[in-house]
Specification:
With about 170 residues, this protein is of the alpha+beta class. The protein has helices at about 5-20, 65-70, 85-95, 140-145, 160-165, 170; strands at about 25, 30-35, 35-40, 45, 55-65, 80-85, 100-110, 125, 130-135, 145-150, 155. It has a single domain (about 5-170), classed as Trna Endonuclease, Chain: A, domain 1. Strand 10 and strand 11 (about 155) form a beta hairpin.
């Protein structure tokens, strides 16, 4: 396992390894240059035995305890924003790798409450923290995304649509 400083990425790598899924962790300190411009790197190349291989960018978010959120009258569950740079970088990598590869976003949710209260079928424990992972193809995400912040150049997908589009990682392979 590569040494990763971001716990969301380290947890996802442990998830892949524990399920015997073949992958390559991308060295985040290396930047590729195309046409004299830096292209944002992705985090993992995950190989499929039956479909397209995945170029995965992991997006870490906290997932609130659903019971606590209901008591307070608000939750920030299913946060899923990304940057324009994420879209451009993954799209560029998808072109470079070709048709056998698909750009995908994996949202790694760090569960803030007991795992049994979270809406994930498969909860992964790593470093005494619980995570839920969901994936979505970049093309599907972009098709449903809306601007979030012009200043920060971020987009987001409405929660209902996001929940309808996401899937378990194994279903993407």
């Amino acid at each position: 396992m590569a040494r990763r400083s971001v716990h969301y990425e380290a947890a996802f790598e442990d998830y892949l390894r524990s399920r015997g899924l073949p992958y390559v962790a991308v060295d985040e300190t290396k930047k590729a240059i195309f046409a004299n411009s830096a292209v944002k790197s992705f985090d993992f190349l995950v190989y499929s035995s039956s479909g397209q291989n995945l170029l995965v960018d992991v997006k870490g978010r906290k997932f609130p305890d659903s019971a606590a959120g209901r008591r307070q009258g608000t939750t920030r569950a299913w946060e899923n924003w990304i940057t324009r740079q994420d879209v451009e970088g993954l799209g560029e990598w998808e072109k470079v790798f070709g048709r056998d590869f698909r750009a995908a976003l994996v949202f790694a949710y760090w569960l803030q409450g007991p795992p049994q209260r979270a809406p994930f079928d498969d909860v992964h424990i790593f470093g005494q923290k619980a995570y839920g992972f969901v994936g979505i193809g970049l093309d599907r995400y972009v098709a449903g995304a809306r601007p979030r912040s012009a200043k920060w150049e971020t987009i987001t997908m409405p929660t209902r649509e996001f929940r309808n589009e996401i899937t378990d990682i194994a279903n993407m392979l």
